[in-house]
Structures are given as structure tokens and as C-alpha cells.
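Exam revision sheet. Question 4 asks you to relate a sequence to its structure. Input first:
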Amino acid sequence: MHEILSNQFFGHTIHEGTRYSKEAGLLKKLPAAIYTCNENGLLTFYNDAAVALWGRIPVIGKDLWCGSLKIRRTDGSPIPLDSCPMAICLKEGREVFGEEIVVVRPDGSCRNVLPYPQPIFDYEGKITGAVNMLVDITELKSVENALRESEERLKYFAISLEKEVAHRTRDLQEANQKLLLYNAQLEQFAYAASHDMKEPLRKIMFYNSSVLDSCEDSLGEKEKGFLIRSVNAAKRMGDLIDNLLDYSKATIGIHAFEPIDLNELVEEILFLHKDLLDERQAKVEKDHLPVTKGIPFQFRQLLDNLIGNAMKYQHPERRLNLQIRTQKIDADHLPGPVTSAALHYHKLSFIDNGIGFEPRYSDKIFDLFQRLHDGAFSSGTGIGLAICKKIVENHGGWLKASGEVGVGARFDIFLAE
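Answer key, C-alpha cells:
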């Protein structure tokens, strides 16, 4: 049998007990499963790794084609032993590579295997047998299956997450639409209510003023004081309603943007306040301001509120000094997320030396009805800065405030070029 193996497996004669025994011993200990068959398909040699793979010890010269008693395809269908890759190799005289099979052991366990049978020919080209190497890929298949299952789970999770995100996004969009509708209705109501309140308030002021004018000599000091406070309260309420109407106008409606020369607009507003500025000996320093695009009446209201704010909160112990500065900045220096494709922005700064405010109120100062000072320093309604912020946001910009008590306040507007 050794002579048969030497002639068929190595293709030439090797004297028994010398070279063959060494090489056969080496093959016996190789970790790869190897076996050979003669030209009739009978097993002529196998190593220890092949026995471990098959789970049995075949009989040399008796077992045909393969040392396994049963093999099948990866889909579970059986493969007759006379149709296994080794049988095809010997019958057709060709290599049979890349066909995965499943070896079923006697104990029922299975191993996934890639066989590599190659025919052996003599010097005359006649097939004398074949050698087959069996590569056990069971662990690799387990890893592949585990990876495939993980991919399937991940895919399922991703699809589920995508559906959940879509569902949540749809819910948020619906909630946002409802909120927008509710806000629009609320703003319309505030506008209508504020507008309707002006007429009865005007009558209260008219009648109280008439009584005060016509009966001033016959009224006591206490009664006159009541009427004066009533007229002042009505006037203050009128200012509050006007500011509420301004806030509603800044919130609702769609208006076309057009070029606005801020120099002309600031000069116009300063001229309107000229008498009061002259009376207080106020000093206004102004850079050459840019031309920007916006809604003219809203910009007029914005600048009037900021200039008026500096006058309203003037420090009682010094002259007002208001600086209106401008500079161009890059988009990456903005105080908030970029919302346009503009690379450069205008920064408009209104800096005064008034009574100022505590830095912790830098954001709170823009809330509706938020007043940081009592009536001893101002007669504001707490709406002006909320209007300013709304107008700047309408134009896709940011309005930031900073201040220091007793030193002054600063308001920075950032607008795209």
C-alpha cells in the first residue's frame, strides 16, 4: 500500500522505508485535512486532521471517495458520495475548487468544508489518483452568520429608528403647525383687542381732562390729585397699547424687503428727538452706516426704540453719550448659528453711558413686559426691546445686549450683507 501511495501521490517511485516514511509522517501531522484516493476512488491515505474532521476512521482500500459517511449541500440537500467533489475530480480528471459542502459526522454534528481535490497523472498522462485538501470553515461561517445576523438586526434597528424619527418629525411638524396657527390667532387677537381698547381709553382721558380743566378751581387738592393720576394712568395704558400694536405688527404679515440707507434713517430719528437731545446736551457719535435690505417701517421702529432706550435710561448724574458704531464681520464670528449663505455680516452697535443693567439680565431684558428698573429711572412699558428683538429676527439676524450697572448698556445687531 505504501508503494501504491508513493507512486500515485508523489508521481514517482520512492524506496520503501526511507523518503516516503518521512514525508508521510509529515503529512500525518499537518493541521490541514488531507487524503488521497486511487483512480478507482478508494482511499489510499488520510491524516489525523482528516479523521478529526470526519469524526470517524475510514478503512484504507475500502471507503470510496470520501472518509465521511454522509455529506450535503449548504441548502441541506444530500450529496451522494459518488457525486462528491473528489468523485467528480477523478471521473472528469479536473480540479474541483470553490464548492462548499457540509460534512455530517456520525454523532450528528456538522462541519462546513471547502474541498480542493486535484487529479494526479503519471508520465504518460494517465490519471492515477487524486489528492484532496479539506478546509474547515465552520468557525468562519459561524462568524459570518453572526455578522449577518448583526447586520440584519442593525438594519432592522436602523429602519425602526428611521420610522420612529419620521413619526416624531411628523408629530413635531404637526405640533409646530398648530403652534404657528395658535400664535397667529393669538397675535391677531392681541392686535384686535389692543386696537379696540384705544377708543374707550381715549374717552376716559378726554372726560377726565375735561373735568380737571373745567372744575379745577372747585376741586380740592385730593380730588385734583386723583384726576391727575387717572389721566397719567390712562396715558400710560395708551402707550402700552400702542407698544402692543407695534409688537403685533412686527410679528404678523409678510412684507417685501427693500434697500434701506441706515444713515438717512438714523438722521431722521435723531431729528425727531432733536429738542430733547439738545435740552439734555446729549452727544451722539455715529459711524458711516451701511445700506441694508429690510422692511423700512420695522427698521425705523427698531432704531427709534434703541435710540429712545438710551435717552430713557440716561444716567441722572451725567450727560448722555450715545455711540452708533458699525463693522463688517465674518459669518464664523456670529453669536448664533448661520441661517443664510452670506459670508459677511454687518454689526451695528448702540453704546450708551446710562444707568446700565446687571449682566445676568442680558437675555431676560428682551422678554415681554420685562422692566429692570423702577419708575424712578424710566417710564417704559417693558415691550420696546421685545419689539426690537422680534424685528431683528424677522430680518434673519441677532440682537445681543450687554451692560454694567452705573456704566452703561450696549446693543449689538448682526445682519447679513
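Marking note for examiners. Residues 272 and 278 are 11 Å apart (CA to CA).
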